[in-house]
Amino acid sequence: TGQGSGVIGPMEVATDGSWAMFPLTDENGTGMSSGSVSVCLCASFDGADDDDAACSSGAEFSALVGRVTVSVVVPPVLSTAVTSAVEFELAFGRVGSGRRLAEAWSSAIAITRLQLVLLFQASMRTAVHKSLGLEGVGIPADAVETTVRTLRTTESVSRDGTPLLQAAVTFAAQYTAAPELMLWSTCSDASVLAYLRSVGSNPLPEPSAAQYRTCLALPKAFDIMGAELLTQFRAALLQEAGLRGLPVLNSRTIKLDPADGLRSQYVPPSFTCAQGAPCQTKVLATKPVLLGGAVLALRGEGVICGSLTVDAGNILATSRVVPGFEEVGGIARLQTVPTGVNQLLTNWGTVSEAGWYTLCFCMAQEASDCVYDKQFDQTAGWLLVRGVAEPQPAECVAWAPCSITSFGYGLSTLDQIVVIPEDEKCGVDGATIEPSVGDNPSANPIVPLFQEPWGARRFAMSVGEKVGPYRLCYCPAHDGSLEGLPTIRMPCTSTAHFSADAGILWMRGIDTADFFFSAPRADEPIAPLSFTMLGLGLLAGLDSVLLVPWGEGTCGAGAVVSEFTSPNPLSVTSAAPLTAWATYNATSEVSFLLKQATRVGDYRICYCTDSTSTPCQDIRSHIH
């Protein structure tokens, strides 16, 4: 503007002086080149230097307004998402007499859990597209994504012998707007539903077509047009099943929940990797201008890239390196290309920590030129590393059903967990799958109550028959794709896929069933006889023993309290020093005192390892 390079006067000022608008251009007035600049304000007063001219020296530009970054990477898009739930039923062709529908879907009805998820996703996407298309809302089918959060199924057989599969699915539907539709930064759930429900009575101001697509389309599909959406979903199920070669004869939709949890935000390109597995992302540009450089990963989504202050020019980028990317030192160096391209591949090696990350890009001729934090000023994308947050201890009781809850990021209903010996490592092909634990690996997890659907999974393990510590390894089922959610195609068929260390499983209880004791019959009380048993994680004063006549009952649900021994049940005391076990102290030896036995015979010694699922006040908890 004639005031010197980089000095710009306002093009418009509010009459009350509350704001001013400045055109940011280069010295030729044609627009800024790529990179970042700090915007500093001089409030038109003199006194910071020796002359009488206002805003004549850098010292007078004392107020930092902010930073402006002109980026070469693709701009963010507006993503709008809602959550819902649907129940439906599929009828399958018969597969031969005497074959069960439960459990082994692939052998019973020729469909796997993965195929069911993919069938649902494609059908719901088509249903949303078609139902909104009838209302004149132009949302492309490929702009809507559905992600399964939970999946529960029930298998049955109809009266005429037709195999039936009932499914209840909670899911998220997400619409990504094209850049030209980025008009609203947020969508208020209350105002959106107020507009939808007021049409025809006392309508609010009608939004533009772009605003309608961005914030109103998904809530309308699930809230106002629920019946039409169910009709389209049922038809899509049959059509998709036919295209995929699945033996579905008919489909029936039962219930659809209204839209909930409306959320919109601007998002850069999104990438997904799995914890403990090789990870790659991309730097994407709108034009072929990329030559090379480096990418810095920062913990969290939406983290600001580059230095925020004017005097931060000497802060090294390595000072912001976060754990998890040890193989590349926290900064991925890009291969230099001789001519500009519109995408560069970024290799992160094996990422060890799950979570959300912001990817900050420094564009340079050579990666070695990217040294300072301020150079990594362009947001190249968000990265979700799916897996467990950190190893956490879990505890189970031997000979009792057990459930294990894992917490993390981007967890899926198709994830699995496996139990291996404690001294082995996760993610190793050929690791020993512990044979003493039933349902190992464990699949089909559910979301615990009051937990974020993508943040926790609970696995139902079967009975463990051998006490001791074991290692838990998590398989974040993924397909290795570079973009988007869900990532669900890792089959979890090899122990190498169980790459995330989920913690130690502590299996408590008596370690054998081969104890034999003898005691004399005595109609009168006798001197107490002490009997000792061995195990791990035993708790004196809480655990107990129940004596059951051999021919009259069993341990557990069939327990019968013997009237010929006393006391019964019997409390146990510690017979060895306390040592560290899981998160507390326990003993490896306990004893119990028998004071009277009035009938000759054999008795079962049933042990109760006290826990929330096996309280020793209940005789049925004496299961071992």
Oligomer: single chain
Number of strands: 31
- Large-scale geometry: globular
What structural class should be given to the helix and strand makeup? Answer: mainly beta
Q: Determine the fraction of residues in helical runs and give it as a percent range.
A: 10-25%
Radius of gyration: 33 Å
Poorly predicted ranges: 96-108, 181-185, 479-488
Largest sheet: 8 strands, mixed
Number of helices: 5
Short overview:
With 624 residues, the chain is mostly beta strands. The chain has 5 helices and 31 strands.
What does this structure look like?
The protein is mainly beta. It has helices at 105-108, 113-134, 189-198, 209-224, 226-243, and strands spanning 12-13, 20-21, 35-41, 63-70, 77-92, 144-157, 163-177, 248-256, 260-267, 270-274, 278-284, 293-299, 331-334, 343-350, 355-363, 378-388, 394-397, 402-409, 416-421, 456-461, 468-475, 500-510, 529-538, 544-549, 565-566, 570-571, 573-574, 579-581, 584-594, 596-597, 603-608. The strands form 8 sheets. Strands 17, 19, 21, 22, 23, 27, 28 and 29 form an 8-stranded mixed β-sheet that branches. A hairpin with a 5-residue loop joins strand 6 (144-157) and strand 7 (163-177). Helix 2 packs across helix 5 (226-243), helix 3 crosses helix 4 (209-224) and helix 4 packs across helix 5. The longest helix is centred in the first third of the chain and has 22 residues, at 113-134. It is globular and about 115 Å long. Mean pLDDT is 80; it is low at 96-108, 181-185 and 479-488.
How does the SSE layout of this entry go?
Blueprint: E1 12-13, E2 20-21, E3 35-41, E4 63-70, E5 77-92, H1 105-108, H2 113-134, E6 144-157, E7 163-177, H3 189-198, H4 209-224, H5 226-243, E8 248-256, E9 260-267, E10 270-274, E11 278-284, E12 293-299, E13 331-334, E14 343-350, E15 355-363, E16 378-388, E17 394-397, E18 402-409, E19 416-421, E20 456-461, E21 468-475, E22 500-510, E23 529-538, E24 544-549, E25 565-566, E26 570-571, E27 573-574, E28 579-581, E29 584-594, E30 596-597, E31 603-608
Parallel strand pairs: 10-16, 17-22
Antiparallel strand pairs: 1-2, 3-4, 5-7, 5-8, 5-9, 6-7, 11-14, 12-13, 12-15, 15-16, 16-18, 18-20, 19-21, 21-22, 22-23, 23-29, 24-26, 24-31, 25-30, 27-29, 28-29
